[in-house]
Each structure stands twice: as structure tokens, then as C-alpha cells.
Write a structure and sequence with these properties.
- This protein is α/β, with parallel strands linked by helices.
- It has helices spanning 2-16, 41-57, 70-79, 96-106, 120-128, 142-150, 152-159, 170-179, 193-203, 207-213, 232-242, 260-267, 297-303, 322-325, 341-349, 359-371, 373-388, 393-402; strands at residues 34-38, 63-67, 86-90, 110-114, 133-138, 164-167, 186-188, 220-227, 248-254, 274-276, 288-290, 306-309, 331-333, 353-355.
- The chain has 2 domains: 2-191 and 391-402, 3-Layer(aba) Sandwich (Rossmann fold); 203-388, Rossmann fold (3-Layer(aba) Sandwich).
- It has 18 helices and 14 strands.
- The strands form 2 sheets. The chain has a 7-stranded parallel beta sheet, with helices on both faces. Strands 10-11-9-8-12-13-14 form a 7-stranded parallel beta sheet, with helices on both faces.
């Protein structure tokens, strides 16, 4: 089956090379010891956390980091700015000639793939050159695992030659093993993304964001984080149900900014002032703010009184609840946290979060927290304590990688 993929991707190269030359011809790329490949913004943060630890363990090592998206590349460059020896660019198209050209220029000693970035030609070319393939922060969501199982004939011959797999959880490890990774080369090391959340929290200055919102002393902020399509009605029901709570404001952050107008159309008829975040100069008079740009969510969690996790009230797998937890915020999420099962279970077991199955249950919990702030603060304190138990993975991945140099 891999031969079919190789032929099809090679054919596509001829059609795409002129349109996206940066994905086919390495420009300004110099040899590197490690080639690390990640997908987008979230994975770039994982890569940054691991690479910072690796640079401390192996100073002087040269690293080439590739990202699949332009937004991921911008985030990576911001996080790794000023660190010598690290270069980041857009990833090559997974075609045989493009991947070969990058390998020929880079001549890496190790190829590290972040989370789920399994590309057949990239794997095959590394293995053909005897370059060890390492998977770090390995994770396979229910959806991704289903797709890869359908293509097991493509991936099994390649994954059985993986030199090392570090997985987020035992469930992820078992899934990679089923796809072909030798069990003796697979272990659980945790999620490096959480370490970066703590690092970012330590240096974050939420003052400018607070000023932009016009947040006044005594006001409470309920942040709806990473809301997904289909959750507009839920948000409207909760905002309407909590509108009688004094000095309470609502910030809605869609997972994808292009969904912001949809949330606006649902919330505007409620009758309270609603504003978009982008381009606004003064938001003090707005009860509801809809964030229509990428980036502010982490800082908003720092200002929040309560955090509600999006993607969890529809079958979307949820979003990362550790980000508000590092600020000691009480956390509420719905029944669907499949993509962050370990994080959700850790917070629930530690008393730092509440899981509900309906908007009516959510409304009851949120109203209780707003009316009993000391109780909410206690939940937030427990969230921070639980999140701390998930720290340290980035250093474990850095140590695992350093053994190959």
C-alpha cells in the first residue's frame, strides 16, 4: 500500500510544486543534528517546551523545526526567539522528491515527530537513510486512530522500525503499538504541553489585556474557552441564565475565529451589549465580548473567575483544561473530553473541575460558583494542585532525545 501512496504523492508534487515552492525546495536551510516536525500552534508549543530542555542537556546542538501551518510557524518562532541553533520553516510536502531534497540538505542525525505527525514518505526516507525516528508526545485521538487503522497497511511496515516512542498516556501507547510500533520501544512520558503552560503563566503580564477589556475592580469574568460549532445555543442559554448575576461579564472565545459571527448572531438578540474583540479600543461597557482573533485565550484564563471548556458539549473531544488550571481557576466542562481524557480525569479526581451533561447542570454549577466565590476559589486551588502533578514531561522527552546524540 505504501507504493500506491508514494506514486500518488509523487504525482501531486508535479501539480503543486510551482504553486507552493517553499514546500518543495529547501531555501536557506543548513545541516542540522535534529529535524523535529510538528503540525500547528498547539504542537509548536510542545516542540518548544521539549527543545528548550534538549538545548540545556545538549548545548550547541543544531535543530531544524518544521511546521505544517503558517500560524504554527509564527508561534514557534515567537516561542524560540533568541535561542541559538534553532531554525524553523514550513514543512515540505510529503512527496518523495520534496522530502528527499530536505533530507539531502539537512542531513539530520535524528528525526523527531511530534504527537500525530506520521507522514509515510517522511518516515520512509528517514529509515532508508538509517536516521532514527523518534515520536515525542505521541497521541492518537479517537478520530485519528480510526483513520490510521484504515491505513495500517501503509504505516505498519514503517512504524515497526521506529526507534523510540514517548506517549502521552497508556491509551495512546497501546494505540501506537497496535499500529506497529514495537512495544519494547514504547513508553509513557506524559504531555509536554503542560510544562509550557506553566512556563507561559510565570512570565505572562495580563495587564494590557485587562486594560483592553476595561475590567473593573470587583467584576467577575466567565470565559468560554475554545467554543466549537454547535455550542452557540449553549453559550446563549448560559449567558441568559446568568445575566442577573451582578458585576459578571462574559468572554466567548471560539476555537476558530471565523465562527465568531455565528456566536454574535446567537448572543446579540439577548439584549445586552455585545462586541467583537479585534480592533476594539474600549470594551468596558460591553457585557459580552466575542474574541475574533487567535492568541488572547491564555491571557483571558489568567483574568477569569471561572473557565468553561469548549468542544466538550458537542462530540468534539474537548480542549485543554490545564491552561486555566495553571492559573488556579475553577473549571467546568461537558461530557466530551475524549481528547484530554487524562487531564480531565486528573482534575476531576483532585476536585479542581466539575463535569456536567447538560446546559441546565452547567447553569446550576456556574450560578453556585458566582454566588459563593470562596467555594469557587477552593476549586481553583485544587485545579492548580492537580495540574502540578502533570508537570515534568518536557524534560523526560528531552532526556530521551539526548540519548541519540
Amino acid at each position: 500500500m505504501y507504493r500506491v501512496y508514494r506514486w500518488a504523492s509523487g504525482l501531486a508534487e508535479k501539480l503543486l510544486a510551482r504553486r507552493y515552492p517553499e514546500r518543495f525546495f529547501p531555501s536557506g536551510v543548513t545541516p542540522a543534528d535534529l529535524w523535529m516536525h510538528a503540525a500547528s500552534v498547539g504542537e509548536s508549543r510542545v516542540a518548544a517546551a521539549i527543545l528548550k530542555g534538549l538545548m540545556e542537556a545538549r548545548p550547541g546542538i543544531k535543530i531544524f523545526l518544521t511546521l505544517q501551518t503558517a500560524t504554527g510557524l509564527r508561534e514557534a518562532r515567537k516561542l524560540l526567539e533568541g535561542i541559538p541553533g534553532v531554525t524553523s520553516e514550513l514543512a515540505p510536502w510529503d512527496g518523495p522528491r520534496a522530502v528527499r531534497a530536505f533530507f539531502k540538505t539537512l542531513r539530520p542525525r535524528v528525526l523527531a515527530l511530534v504527537e500525530t505527525e506520521l507522514w509515510p514518505n517522511l518516515l520512509a526516507e528517514a529509515l532508508a537513510r538509517d536516521v532514527p525516528v523518534v515520536i515525542v508526545n505521541g497521541r492518537l485521538s479517537d478520530r485519528a486512530f480510526s483513520r490510521y487503522r484504515l491505513l495500517k497497511g501503509v504505516f505498519r511496515p514503517l512504524l515497526k522500525q521506529v526507534a523510540f516512542l514517548g506517549a502521552i498516556s497508556e491509551r495512546d501507547r497501546e494505540r501506537f503499538v497496535e499500529l506497529g510500533v514495537p512495544p519494547e520501544r514504547a513508553t509513557v512520558l506524559g504531555n509536554a504541553k503542560h510544562d509550557l503552560a506553566f512556563q507561559r503563566a510565570e512570565v505572562l503580564d495580563p495587564g494590557p489585556l485587562e486594560g483592553r477589556l476595561g475590567l473593573q475592580p470587583g467584576e467577575r469574568l466567565l470565559v468560554f474557552g475554545s467554543m466549537r460549532e454547535g455550542e452557540e445555543t449553549l453559550v446563549a442559554e448560559l449567558v441568559a441564565g446568568l445575566s442577573g448575576e451582578p458585576r459578571t461579564r462574559f468572554v466567548v472565545v471560539p476555537r476558530h475565529p471565523e465562527r465568531a459571527p455565528g456566536f454574535f448572531r446567537t448572543l446579540a438578540p439577548l439584549g445586552w451589549p455585545v462586541a467583537f474583540f479585534r480592533g476594539a479600543q474600549g470594551l468596558a461597557g460591553f457585557r459580552v465580548v466575542i474574541v475574533d482573533e487567535v492568541g488572547p485565550l491564555f491571557g483571558l484564563y489568567a483574568l477569569a473567575s471561572i473557565a468553561l471548556i469548549g468542544g466538550s458539549f458537542r462530540n468534539k473531544g474537548g480542549q485543554n483544561p490545564i491552561e486555566p488550571a495553571v492559573f488556579g481557576k475553577p473549571i467546568l466542562f461537558g461530557p466530551h473530553m475524549e481528547n484530554f481524557r487524562l487531564e480531565a480525569e486528573t482534575l476531576l479526581a483532585g476536585g479542581g473541575a466539575v463535569q456536567v451533561t447538560s446546559s441546565s447542570e452547567a447553569l446550576e454549577i456556574l450560578r453556585t460558583w458566582l454566588r459563593n466565590p470562596k467555594s469557587a476559589q477552593q476549586v481553583g486551588k485544587k485545579a492548580l494542585e492537580a495540574a502540578r502533578r502533570l508537570r515534568g514531561a518536557s524534560l523526560r522527552y528531552a532526556e530521551a532525545l539526548s540519548r541519540f546524540f
